[in-house]
Amino acid sequence: AQTVTQSQPEMSVQEAETVTLSCTYDTSESDYYLFWYKQPPSRQMILVIRQEAYKQQNATENRFSVNFQKAAKSFSLKISDSQLGDAAMYFCAYRSDRAGNMLTFGGGTRLMVKP
Amino acid sequence: GAVVSQHPSRVICKSGTSVKIECRSLDFQATTMFWYRQFPKKSLMLMATSNEGSKATYEQGVEKDKFLINHASLTLSTLTVTSAHPEDSSFYICSARAWGLADYNEQFFGPGTRLTVL
User: Is the pLDDT confidence value at B16 over 90?
Assistant: First the structure.
């Protein structure tokens, strides 16, 4: 079974600075997807960014980018120019490419943004 | 597009009663819906996968007679917590996998339902 590990329960960043959230995963599959989700206080899950394992190029979405290291099974999220609205729980998630497509979530990292 | 709603957003019930939570895909058809449970300050734990027109697949440790899931149409799945007890109090989140959209394999999440059992 796949496992996803987020080793940082909490992180703090100064507004306008850059922060990196870590995620590692364990799988024997070669084809899969990785995601970062944001859960603000409203509890609504919001997709931040996704990465297909077969793509070598790291995904980027505006201020959000990932560092995907397939061999090391690492998938970190970098948030540039942090804003107060970025404060939330961030979950890393893995999804197999096989039928079923269920998501396996990491334990989450609480990001605090200081003004 | 790709909006998922849940109803109710929060519910308080007495121990021993049953509670039904609805998950609807508002602007797309969802062949598959997922039900998650989230404890305070914890991650999402998959409870079951619901496929339209067939029986749900439950994760290990989830009581299927306790958490009844029905996926009767391509836009609606329901989770019924039967004979609820205080330990069933939690935040329940559904997600739906879109059919026919460009991002077919994407899961879209509902806003969640907070269940409190007294």
Answer: yes
At B50, the amino acid letter reads: S
The one-character DSSP state at B90 is: E
How far A3 CA sits from the closest chain B CA (Å)? Answer: 12
Q: Which residues contact B93 (CB under 8 A, 6 or more apart)?
A: A43, A45, B6, B35, B36, B37, B38, B44, B109, B110, B112, B113
Contacts of B106 in chain A (CB under 8 A): 47
For chain A, state the CA radius of gyration: 14
How close does chain A come to B95, measured CA to CA in Å? Answer: 9
Cβ contact, residue pair A44, B112, below 8 Å: yes
- Cα B89 to Cα B67: distance, rounded to the nearest angstrom: 13
pLDDT digits (tens, 9 = 90+) for A35-77: 999 999 999 999 999 999 999 899 999 999 999 999 999 999 9
At B58-79, the pLDDT tens digits run 999 999 999 999 988 889 999 9
Closest C-alpha among A97, A76, A92 to residue A32 = A97
